[in-house]
Structures are given as C-alpha cells and as structure tokens.
Amino acid sequence: MRKTSFKTALFGTAVTAVLSVAAFSGASAGEKWDMPMAYSASNFHSVTGAEFARCVTTGTGGEIEIETHPSGSLFKGADIKRAVQTGQAPIGERLLSGNQNENAIFGFDSIPFLATSFEDSEKLWKAAKPTLTKILDEQNLHLLYAVPWPPQGFYFNREINSVAEMEGIKFRAYNTATARLAELAKMRPVSIEAAELSQALSTGVAESMISSGATGYDRKVWDSLTHFYEVDAWLPRNYVMVNKDVWEGTTDAQKNVINACSDLAEYAGNWRAIEYTNFTLNGLREGGMSVGPAGDQLTSDLKKIGETMTAEWLEKAGDEGKAIVEAFRASQ
Ligand code: PCA
Q: Which of 211, 231, 235 to mutate to test the pocket of ligand 1 (most atoms within 8 A of CB)?
C-alpha cells in the first residue's frame, strides 16, 4: 500500500496519516476554525501558524479549514486564551508567560538566566510540558505546540551601563515577570501589546523594553530607540491551544493530522526562531541602532535581579515549579 512507503519519513506514522487523509478524503466543505494570533503577519510565529493552518486544511482534505488572524485583529493577545477557553474561538496562539498572573507555572520560561540558549530552552520546555499540558487540560484547553522567541535583550533610547542608570525610565512590560523586573530596576512599567508598540514608543508612553531582536525588527523600533543590549535573559514561548470540547469533537484521523502538523510547526518554528535571531539583529543595525553585549556592570547588576526573581518564582510556583527546574537541570 502507498501508505507504507512514507513510513520512514521524518515524522513517521503521523506524517503518513496526513498524507493518507489528504489523498483519500477529497475536498469536501467542512468546519472553519478561526485562529486568533497576537503578532504581526510577517513575524515568524505567524508564518509558522499560517503553515500549520494550511497543513491541517490540506491534511484533513478540507474537513477542518483553519484561517489565521494575526496582529491581534480578531482578539488581542491578552484576550486570546479566554476566547479559546470559552469557545469564542476554537483555536488560538498566545504568549505563554502572558498567563502567569493566573498561575506562576506559565512563567517557567521567563525566569532570568535559567535557560538562555535555544538548546536549553528546548530542554526546559520538555521538562515543563507535562505539567503545563495538565494545567491547560483542567482549563478546558488542549495544548498543540509551542515555539520560542529569540533570546531577550534590553532596548533603550540612550546608552545604559548599569541598573542604577535605569531609574525612572518608562519600561514597556509584556508579562508579570517583565513588570517585576522593571520594579526591581526602579523603572516605571507600562503594559503594552506588541501590536501597539510602535505607537507607544513614538508617543513616549514607553522608552525602553526587554524583548527579542525579532520584535524590535518587526516594529521598526529604530525610529524611537537607539541601543539593544544582548543580555540573553530568557527565551519565552508562544503556544497554540485548541478548545478541549472542539478537540474532543474531532475524529481520530483528524487528531492524527493535527498532531502531525503540530510537530512539524514546533520543529519549523524553532528553526525559524534560530535563523531570525541574527537576521533581525542585523536589521536593527541597518536601522541605525547600536547592537552588542551589555557591559560588565550592567550584566552583574542584572544577574542580581535575576537571582531575586528566580527565588520569587520558585516560591510562587511551589513543588510543581521546583520539579520543572530540577528536571531541567538534570537534563542539561
Ligand atoms: N516578543 C514578544 C514577547 C517576547 C518577544 O521577543 C513581545 O515583545 O511582545
């Protein structure tokens, strides 16, 4: 049978399922799943999501047609998880650590200086995934895949050489960890979604942030900011979730296709993130920004803040959190 000749492919049986369903089910009109995403269409997470959507649409022979809605056009980032939980949207993508205000475990990927490379980010993800899958399941959500952002560094509109020099600066925060970091550095945190970032910077609502080269590049921040310090503080993830009732309503064959497309998306998204890292740092340079490592004083000041934040997170995340960090360290 045609099926067996594909068995040696990268994703084995799962890929076979995609191909066989696509080949035999024809193009009947099916269900439409709108998929809200918070970041710009050109961002690599959105590109990966669009490919995932095509994979599912093709793989199910049109039985499930997914359409992505990037840039927060359907729901803003902060509203996407609730929308999927309550069934307002069947599927969606959200910044994982954006949910850490409801459960500290969601912030496992924003602990300063715990996992600072793509390799370690992958190990940390493996250590956290079972706990996270369970928490999401209890919230009526089924986890499909997660992709990291490039390492996080600091953006400023002036040269900064120590944490003392950050005092009073308006700092754009994207989750509880970044707001806490601002507080510890005596900056003034203001919560702003990436989709509103360019405007917040040009109007002076924010004058600094921690993020990846990718987001700075996507939002063309060189119009307002001058310095990017490569601190490699952490690599936060975006995750794609589906409403549990919707997931349970799919057939086994459809689940196989969606799982295969999810594996492929996580793998491809990870590679895109790696490739996007230097590409976007060069983009910041071409935009006129100074891009380079933080100085010794700034680095050691930030390490101290990192120690405080790590202790605070471990306290809040309890035994489950401690187990994730221990499993990660054992895998290093
Ligand atoms: N970009 C996202 C989150 C992390 C990142 O690199 C943002 O700034 O909103």
A: 211
300: helix, coil or strand? helix
3-state secondary structure (DSSP) of residue 135: helix
CA quadruple 240, 245, 248, 251: dihedral sign:
negative
Q: Which residues contact 32 (CB under 8 A, 6 or more apart)?
A: 65, 67
CA atoms of 261 and 30, how far apart (whole Å):
18
Q: Tell me, in angstroms, the distance from the centre of ligand 1 to residue 321's CA.
A: 23
Cα–ligand 1 centroid distance for 214 (angstroms):
8
Contacts of 284 (CB under 8 A, 6+ apart): 213, 216, 217, 221, 222, 228, 291
The domain made up of 153-233+289-331 has a fold known as D-Maltodextrin-Binding Protein; domain 2 (3.40.190)
276 CB neighbour count, 10 Å cutoff: 22
User: Which tens digits make up the pLDDT trace of 44-91?
Assistant: 999 999 999 999 999 999 999 999 999 999 999 999 999 999 999 999
- Which of 3.40.630.30, 3.40.190.170, 3.30.750.24, 3.40.50.10840 would CATH assign to domain 2-149+237-280? 3.40.190.170
Q: Which of 35, 42, 91 is nearest to 68 (CA)?
A: 35
Ligand 1 midpoint to CA 149 (Å): 7
